[in-house]
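Office hours follow-up: a student asked to see two folded examples consecutively, so here they are.
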Amino acid sequence: MSKRRVVVTGLGTINPLGNNVADTWNNLINGISGIDYITSFKTDELPVTFAGEVKNFDANEYMGKQHARKLDRSGHLSIYATEEALKDANLDTEQRLGNGVGVVFGTGIGGIGATEQAVRTYDERGASRINPLAITQLMPNSSTGQVAIKFGIEGPSLTITTACAASANAVGEAKNMIQNGIVDMVIAGGTEAGTTAMTIGAFAQIRALSTNNKNPKGACRPFDKDRDGFIMGEGSTVLIMESEESAINRGVNIYGYVAGYGASTDAHHITAPAEGGKGAVDAMKKALFDAELTSDDIDYINAHGTSTLANDKNETAAIKTVFGEKAYDINISSTKSMTGHLLGGGGAFESLVSLLSLKNNIIPPTINLNNPDEECDLNYTPNISIEKDLSTAMSNSFGFGGHNGVLVFKKT
């Protein structure tokens, strides 16, 4: 029996570049950075003072103060992005979606803001003063549950917490659900609101973050010789995924096919990638096999491209291993150069970018790439987007713990 084809019919996002898909895409292809000095808390005592923050979003105004107070910021963002995606897919946000629809969300650290607040309250005022909503705010599956409640999703639900690969894995597992006939539609995506004083401080302690405080917009420099770490980002992105038959029957727009999914584990080190990107190689090969494509078929790669010394050189090596000499002909870009690293929300955001690149035949740039690293010698589409006929795209996501998730998308 032939596999059911899986398509994307709706997109929604809120991220450092925009609070909707159109603004996000326009800023991406124009090489505009959403990274700036942190405004949501004081950074006087922190070694890093900038991040990719969501802008001009007030949860109290969006959903009402009574509802907003029940959720962590990651939940606010996920509900917003889901509503945008449902509308885009021509689905009624006032009607319960029912048991024929599933939901799969990825997150790296869940409600970390609520966690910090609860600990702070306990230390300063005692256990009796902890917010009674703290547990439901901080649990990693809070966004999945809240989205299901808000939109009446009664089918299977999963929360995936594979660090920075989480929402790539979410899209991949949603594909498997639909392909195997478990449901016809899945709300898939990721959310992260990890830009807090504690997380900034903790990531800085392991020297993972850029400390280029004098130039926030130029700080994220994937594949550049002068790169010095990633930049924290926040946001949520949601894809409405369904069987091709379902989409045709509903008569809705199709952005593209989720054609392939590959996952692997380095089993090497809790933070460092395996030398040469062995786990990344395995995941890319599995995604190509699942898509029934070869390395010659890929036109564009949205790289994990974190702007860290270890990731960028090992991802480059992995791409060379999988694609051979063809690696030099493929356009690659890291859109993290403009958004920062959305952690568990990154894979879903970069899935959106891959689909829009295919639909518009435009490859976004890797900005701030002015002094290429000799070990990173592929075509990373430096600084300026390009127009190119595209049929297929690959999106790479790799996370702490050695988690690797790779997706392949095809144009309709």
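And the second, which I mentioned at the end of office hours:
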Amino acid sequence: MGARDLIYGAYARRVARSLPADRIPGHVGVILDGNRRWAKAYGEQAATGHQAGADKIQELLGWCEELGVRVVTLWLLSTDNLGRSETELRDLMAIIEGVVTELADTGRWRVHPVGALDLLPDRTARVLKEVDERTSGCTGVHVNVAVGYGGRREIADAVRSLLNEHASRGTQIEDLAQVLDVEHIAEHLYTKGQPDPDLVIRTSGEQRLSGFLLWQSAHSEFYFCEAYWPSFRKVDFLRAIRAFADRERRFGA
């Protein structure tokens, strides 16, 4: 371990000690951005960046465990990403299948897929469903893996599910329109029954949500980090948590 690592380690411990226990976010969403740019910076192929990003996930979840974060949502693949080249998508699907299986194999976390699984290759969708079932009894951190996820698509799917549910009961559309409110839609989101994210972190320097948890993030705090996701360090995570703890949350007021 070099001098720089020792300095960062000492600094990270100091930041961690400064965090007030009652100001830790219960649900953290993370946009894992910058894998391809990280790979390009090192002269590597995109798949190398995606694998490096996947390898970082267990570290992040360990940091969340240490602080007492209860729910983590990781955006691994957007619906827009499905338009990438066939070669990159094939590599990316294999990496996603591998990382969610590894998360499940630890027995530490509840791994739950969120997204339009019907848009994914059959094998990837099957692996995600198997991991969901296999970890259903785990009591550790609840880990949502957003794959084939888009915020607008989620809301459209929620409304579609709501309409189908009421149609099966024989409810007339006019009657539903009279009583429909936001909670009815929230009950049909991919994350139904879960708390909304308190904090959303995006890596790579981009300062936008790109539709991530579009409905759920209405009152979230946002933190944008310059580091590409594979280079994201514990000290970067702790700085995000410290920034959250220092803010006065107004919940839209």
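Two things to take away from it. The chain has a mean pLDDT of 93. The radius of gyration is 19 Å.
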